[in-house]
Design goal:
Helix content: 25-40%
CATH class of one domain: Alpha Beta
Shape: globular
Distance between the termini: 13 Å
Order of helices and strands: EHEHEHHHHEEHHEEEHEE
Number of strands: 10
CATH topology of one domain: Purple Acid Phosphatase, chain A, domain 2
Strand content: 15-25%
Oligomer: single chain
Number of helices: 9
Largest sheet: 5 strands, mixed
Structural class: alpha/beta
CATH architecture of one domain: 4-Layer Sandwich
CATH superfamily of one domain: Metallo-dependent phosphatases
């Protein structure tokens, strides 16, 4: 059953046993949204909670979306419509590329790339755009027909939005990416594949990356706050918990559905 009211968690959260000296720019409050995966219902609720929470915010209010807007949930097209239409009034927005958007764009360019995408939730995105994905096989002609139908039904504004997505964003002492970074590689030399796909090499590293890396991509039961990274993908498509990290000055807290 979809939630009907924001359940707001407003708690300060810093690494166990210590404070944090990491900061965002002055007069700025950042709201960082984890993986949405077709849950437009949760995104609407979270936007309401963010607007309510920002009543006392400083002049610059920024929502950073970490990617994976599509697939798995039933309302991928509605999520893209909401995001492409702009943030709530009074907010800036930064939209990052997730691996599922990369999969979708690859499929639009080459139907041979569709099998892996469809097996990992892409069929839900096809259905949300009115493309019949029931019983779709992985034969190239079937994939090509689905690709052509999706191309015809995908609104131009949605395609423009998908093609505009950024790989990373920096605010103060924080770097925002979808999946993570490759340890030991300078931040300005990271590969696109690593930024949207990496897991273990990043997740199990205790290296100082030069910035605290805020990411989604890997599902956790609760937000994972470590010295060098913060993971906020709480599996919204399955759990109903879409998590938002709030950063202001040197403070960290969360708003969640």
């Amino acid at each position: 059953m979809p939630p009907t009211r924001p359940s707001i968690i407003a708690r300060l959260f810093t690494p166990a046993g210590s404070g944090t000296s990491n900061a965002v720019p002055p007069s700025t409050r950042l709201y960082v949204v984890g993986d949405i995966h077709g849950r437009a219902d949760l995104l609407r609720i979270l936007h309401e909670a963010i607007v309510e929470d920002a009543a006392d915010a400083p002049p610059r209010r920024v929502i950073v979306y970490l990617g994976d807007y599509v697939d798995r949930g039933a309302e991928s097209s509605a999520v893209i419509e909401m995001l492409a239409s702009g943030p709530p009034a009074g907010f800036e927005a930064v939209h990052l590329l997730g691996n599922h958007e990369a999969w979708l764009l690859d499929f639009l360019d080459d139907p041979d790339q569709g099998a892996g995408w469809i097996m990992n939730g892409g069929s839900a995105t096809l259905l949300s755009y009115g493309v019949d994905a029931a019983g779709i096989s992985f034969q190239r002609d079937r994939l090509a027909r689905a690709r052509d139908e999706l191309r015809a039904k995908l609104p131009p504004a949605h395609l423009a939005f998908l093609r505009s997505l950024k790989l990373s964003h920096v605010e103060g002492d924080y770097l925002f990416v979808h999946a993570g970074i490759r340890p030991g590689v300078p931040l300005d030399r990271q590969s696109a594949d690593d930024l949207v796909w990496i897991r273990d090499e990043f997740l199990f590293s205790d290296a100082d990356h030069g910035k605290v890396v805020v990411h989604g991509h890997t599902i956790v039961d609760e937000p994972e706050v470590l010295d060098n990274r913060i993971g906020i993908d709480t599996g919204a498509f399955a759990t109903g918990r879409l998590t938002c990290l709030v950063l202001e000055g040197t403070t960290r807290r969360f708003v969640s559905t």
